[in-house]
Design brief:
The complex is a heterodimer of chains A (about 150) and B (about 120).
Chain A (H helix, E strand, L loop, with lengths): L7 H6 L2 H8 L3 H4 L2 H6 L3 H12 L2 E3 H13 L8 H21 L3 E4 L4 E4 L3 H12 L4 H16 L1
Antiparallel strand pairs in A: 1-3, 2-3
Chain B lengths: L11 H8 L10 E6 L2 H4 L2 H13 L17 H9 L13 E6 L2 E6 L3 E6 L7
Antiparallel strand pairs in B: 1-4, 2-3, 3-4
Classes of the chains: A mainly alpha (about 150), B alpha+beta (about 120).
């Protein structure tokens, strides 16, 4: 209705191209499904936070860290059962999903995960939202490591 | 990745016949059952793997290959049956999802019961 074709020239001669870029996110932004999939569960977010610190983790260490965070206890106080519950969920759901999206790869023989091709993109998104959405999680994921160093 | 966990795509008729009476399946022997308690188990995946471990007589962390992820989207079942309830009341719909995992037929019921059955007599291949 307001779109008068005769006005096209005016608009285009001005800031039309710039405006279009502002209104419509780039293709790379729109096609971030794997980023949202990767970060769509608190345990996967925690796992990705730990990748910010180190690119390689054993599943057992990861399970211990996550169990400590979820139960609000230090890592040395995590029980075997608490660790096993998390370990099983990592192994059967979260790590295969992240591997599907090329965020991590799992070395079956050593049960170690390593950051993969898409990890950079996911971690960039995570760092961007970490300050507002998940600051507690991030603080814990990093803080525990600082504590470990001090011990 | 090998895919030994099979979903029951060629077994739909059987599911339909059995689906109406949740879990009461006379043709398959039930090996074990476990009630999914979100407060204790956390994720449904954990409860399912613990049930399979009990059926196999091993510890849960020894149930490794293949991952459940290769058989079924457990997170989707968790969402469908146990996910975001309305403010105060749980959903009332009753249902069951069946799928194959290694040598077992697993049933996850909307009331939280996970049944592990031997899937003998059916050759999925």
């Amino acid at each position: 209705m307001v779109d008068d074709p005769t006005r096209d020239d005016d608009v285009q001669s001005g800031s039309e191209s710039v405006g279009a870029e502002r209104d419509l996110p780039s293709r790379e932004i729109l096609e971030l499904d794997h980023v949202y999939e990767a970060l769509g569960h608190s345990r996967r977010r925690y796992l990705c936070y730990t990748l910010l610190e180190r690119a390689e983790w054993s599943l057992t260490d990861l399970a211990t860290k996550i169990a400590a965070w979820e139960n609000g206890v230090p890592e040395h106080a995590v029980t075997g059962l608490q660790r096993e519950r998390v370990y099983v969920a990592l192994y059967h759901t979260h790590v295969p999903k992240l591997a599907d999206d090329d965020v991590v790869t799992l070395d079956e023989s050593t049960e170690t995960i390593v950051a993969a091709e898409n990890a950079t993109q996911v971690l960039a998104a995570l760092e961007g939202m970490g300050t507002t959405l998940d600051s507690n999680q991030e603080t814990h994921a990093r803080g525990e490591m600082d504590n470990d160093k001090q011990r | 990745m090998t895919n030994n966990g099979r979903t029951t795509t060629n077994n739909d008729n059987e599911i339909e016949r059995n689906g109406s009476d949740l879990g009461r399946d006379t043709r398959r022997r039930q090996v074990t059952q476990r009630h999914y308690d979100p407060a204790r188990d956390g994720e449904l995946t954990t409860a399912i793997v613990f049930a399979v471990a009990e059926a196999e007589g091993v510890s849960p962390s020894e149930v490794t290959s293949p991952p459940l992820y290769d058989s079924v989207d457990v997170a989707a079942i968790e969402d469908a049956f146990f996910g975001s309830e309305s403010e105060s009341e749980p959903r009332r719909g009753a249902g069951v999802v069946e799928f194959r995992y290694v040598d077992y037929l697993l049933k996850v019921r909307s009331d939280g019961w996970i049944l592990v059955c031997e899937s003998t007599g059916v050759d999925p291949s």
